[in-house]
Amino acid sequence: MMVSGQRRTTIKDVAEAAEVGVATVSRVLSGTGSASPATREKVLAAAARLDYRPSALGRNLRRQRTGGIGLLVPDITDTFYARLADGVLDCARSAGEPVMVGVTADDPEREAELIGSLIEESVERVIAVPSGDGEMWGPAFRAGLGVVFAERPVQGGDGAPAVVADDRSGVRTAVEYLAGLGHRRIAFLARHGQARRVRAFREALGSLGVAVDEELIVHARATRDSAYAAASGLFQHRPDLTAVLAGSNILGEAAVLAARELDLRLPRDVSLIMFDDVPWAELCSPPLTVVSQPARDMGYRAAELVLRETRRARTVTLPTELVVRGSCGPRR
Amino acid sequence: MMVSGQRRTTIKDVAEAAEVGVATVSRVLSGTGSASPATREKVLAAAARLDYRPSALGRNLRRQRTGGIGLLVPDITDTFYARLADGVLDCARSAGEPVMVGVTADDPEREAELIGSLIEESVERVIAVPSGDGEMWGPAFRAGLGVVFAERPVQGGDGAPAVVADDRSGVRTAVEYLAGLGHRRIAFLARHGQARRVRAFREALGSLGVAVDEELIVHARATRDSAYAAASGLFQHRPDLTAVLAGSNILGEAAVLAARELDLRLPRDVSLIMFDDVPWAELCSPPLTVVSQPARDMGYRAAELVLRETRRARTVTLPTELVVRGSCGPRR
DNA sequence: GTGAAAGCGCTAACAG
DNA sequence: CTGTTAGCGCTTTCAC
Asked: Nearest C-alpha of chain B: how many angstroms from A102?
């Protein structure tokens, strides 16, 4: 029977069992250096017999570096970030690296705390969807962290690499499609932190010769409640709008709900395009036209980047695609 | 300008800067033992000035225990598990514990690998949705890991605690509701590993005096493709069924898609109840009647449990609730 | 109240 | 090819 307070099997135990020195065990097990076939066998056998697992703690402390990578997302419940995380996790797993996940709730303060605890854990690589303006990343850079941003680049990001979707082209394509359907009063539901998309929205409108109506650009915080309030408020204050571009799936969901609540029919009364393709977009009534983003790829690429080299700052831009379904119609 | 290869600030640096011994620094910073107000100040000041963060590596190695907790889920992309993870992450954050997340894809082999790497990282507490029959958990128990299972208990689980939803009552309520609507040919779309729910389904049917038709119990693997294949196959092979209970939101999604593809109308041609309430259930057409599960709470409770004491095995069962919307109708 | 010193498990020099 | 040894950063006796 197994007692609860058993000591962990250490490299020393293996060395004794195999009747060799600890260094030899280390060499054999880590594949470094050389060892005679005979000793190699003895060590392997002993290790297997004792069910030995080298302690990452000891190794990391000695080598002065931790393998693990940190992942900071605003909300793991949002399928976009869940898919992003999935990509990161997959890449990390094939590299054998553990991943520490933190949820920032898009709150810079919470983000700073999480960065702090990552540093404390000696995590030296982190992939993050930065909150706010990414103002909390100074300490991280100073601590020598290898950072790759995802979804949103950071302004004064000291040239930290980022993996982002092609917002400009995504927004432009959506707006042009809407304009082609005759729409002129197009609203944009944005989350805080989507400055790039808002800018792209203004640009797209401008190059189409449509005047920008600032009231039609509405911002929400990253919660379902805030999203709903924003969408509902928009529909009520501006019953003259004929189309909406939602900056995220949460905002799209809110828009569908709010429209339904106010008895606005899609696409008869109002057309809707949502950023990010999610499984339910097809199940919705009507099926939603979306700007799909390669969320999983973004995560995977970010992980690849952070595992290689963070020195040379690059920004990887991944393509978006307009997926036309049934939520847009001609201007009423 | 900051060079890249800077050494991490250690307790020794702080000791020197404060002109005290390292032991004193340790005592002050960890709140252990006593120190004179004067030294206390000096130490705190030095630590703040140097922006010192104690290394969890050193601490854990010395104390022979790691704070962190491991979290193993089948699929972080499934909103049920994402919400579960969210609960865990939230609880862990308020306890200041880092969380390492792994995706098992419901594959026992992958699960075993992940368990191994958690042990290697000296993680000593783990929350897991076990894959398969949970046959890979022997080594974990042997290694002295504190394990709490979530969603599914493990049969010979050595009395490891588990936090689960009340499957029996959830299934029974759903089946009774369907039966009350006149349905007799009720199918159950199950994921592998949902043996409890299948059993409950048989029981519920039995106590209602409805014969169990084994062909109406269909199993799928934990992927969207497999779910769709199962749902589609079921509808095609058994056009006589009048109601379906889907064991997960992935299976529910598949059922809606498959039904639509085969031109079966909900709820006219077939009634559908799905396990797990998700945001899109309301957006679906028709809105889906569901058995809601407190996914987030399950995660939170599991984290609380694993952070306290794992010794005394308990199984926490959380209630489910039938949320009636529009996907069920009287037998056609 | 405080400092010196002994390791925790591991790897990388350095001898042999 | 292999064993001995010196730490990595930290906490914790144990003297002072």
From this structure: 7
Which of B131, B160, B189 is a domain's end point? Answer: B160
**Domain limit, last residue, from B160, B194, B222:** B160
* pLDDT over 70, % of chain A: 95
User: B193-211 pLDDT, tens per residue?
Assistant: 899 999 999 999 999 999 9
Q: What are phi and psi of B63, to 5 degrees?
A: -80, -5
What pLDDT was estimated at residue B332?
A: 75
B12 nearest nt, CA–C1'? D9
Range of lowest pLDDT (A5-14, B119-128, B181-190): A5-14
Residues whose CB is below 7 A of strand D: A 19-24, 27, 33-36, 38-40, 58, 61-62, 64; B 7-8, 10-12, 22-23, 25-27, 29-30, 32-33, 53-55, 57-59, 61-63
A282 neighbors A128 (Cβ within 8 angstroms): no
* Chain A span 27-86 residues with beta carbon within 7 Å of strand C: 29-30, 32, 53-55, 57-59, 61-63
- Tally of CB atoms within 10 A around B261: 12
- Listed residue (B249, B199, B210, B300) closest to B75, CA to CA: B249
- Which residues 18-77 of chain B have a CB under 7 Å from nucleic chain C? 19-24, 27, 33-36, 38-40, 58, 61-62, 64
The predicted structure's pLDDT at residue A218? 97
Q: Is residue B47 part of a domain?
A: no
Taking residues A78-96, what's their average pLDDT?
96
Average pLDDT over residues B261-276: 96
Indicate whether B221 and B242 sit together in one domain.
yes
Give the structural domain span for B141.
Answer: 61-160
Number of domains in chain A: 2
Query: Is A93's CB within 8 Å of B102's CB?
Result: yes
d(CA A165, C1' D1) / Å? 54
Asked whether residue A227 is assigned to any structural domain, the reply reads yes
For residue B75, being part of any structural domain is answered with yes
User: At which residue do the structure tokens 């409805």 appear?
Assistant: B210
CATH number of A243's domain: 3.40.50.2300
- pLDDT at residue B3 greater than cutoff 50: no
What's the predicted TM-score (pTM) here?
0.94
DSSP B326: S
* Strand order from edge to edge, sheet including B162-165: A315-318, A162-165, A146-150, A125-128, A69-73, A99-103, B99-103, B69-73, B125-128, B146-150, B162-165, B315-318
Q: Report the nucleotide nearest the CA of residue B30, measured to C1'.
A: D11
Q: Are A212 and A258 found together in one domain? A: yes
